Amino acid sequence: MRKSSELQGYEHRRENKLMQYFNAVGIEETGQFIHLRVYQIHRLDFVKTERTYNLGNVIKKSKNNYWIVRDSTIGLTGSSCENFEVAKLNCPLLPEDESGFRTLEEALESYERSTVTVKVAQVSPVKYRDNFLAIRSLSAKDSSNKTVKIDLFGNHAEKNYAKNDVVKLTSVYKKVYRNRIQLSLSKTSDVQFMPPESLQIAIGDDDYLSDSDFEDTPLDTFKITECLGCHIYNCCDKPACYEKKLNDDGTCRTCAERPERQMKTCRATFKYLTEASRSPIQITLFKPTLSILLQENVDLTSWDTFETQIANALPICFKCKISEGKFYNITMQ
Domain range for residue 67? Predict the structure, then answer.
């Protein structure tokens, strides 16, 4: 019914090689549509729409999803498909098609990336991996009546989410974590807040997931008393590189490429006190956290304007949690 116009591919990290394939959507004699991922790339021109085929030794990956691999067979059995034009009206899109919209239930079945629109049920605190990468989880529900955990990373994790927010998430993929199937954002994902009326479903007690990531703990009180130094530096302009400082030769430490445009970011080192601390504690904060604590965008026009902005804000009092040297769930006082 449908077939990729060109080869698709992804990097196989374990084997460090490019895996290529093409996608197809077919219809069985029962009228059931099936999705095919064909790794026999030399068959791209052999497989055509409106023709019928017999498939042998295929791998079933999930309901209505199959892989055609090296040992599979594709046999041409006919030159036309009955009621082709009628069936095509209801035929699912190919995974690479621009829309890619799926329900949560469909996204959990798909081996391709999906776009979903969901209503938020639970929001976890932000945590940080390797002292830099922000991580947060949502539990969310959609019109398929499925509640799913979704992992967010980087700038998307540091956005403010609340129960009943409606968000559209692009380029999400399924994964298994702690023996539970869930969804995760990819490096190319985007998050867009939608009008509340765009998804008219209710969030009830049954939609809350029993997961330690969503456990609510009280916030601690913090007071930043002094700044030990602040720095402005060039960084990569790709969101997936999380504003890492460039190497001396101008390349990105993450993607190893030179940015297409100049972009600056910053960090600053402070001393802070808590209710429990007897002496000041040192911490280094980066632009996303600084913007929250300053309650305005960081001014990177010059070093002087950046320093003056910090000086005018001191001392800074707030409540939050701290994990691996990062403040999260910040509430200003």
Answer: 2-89
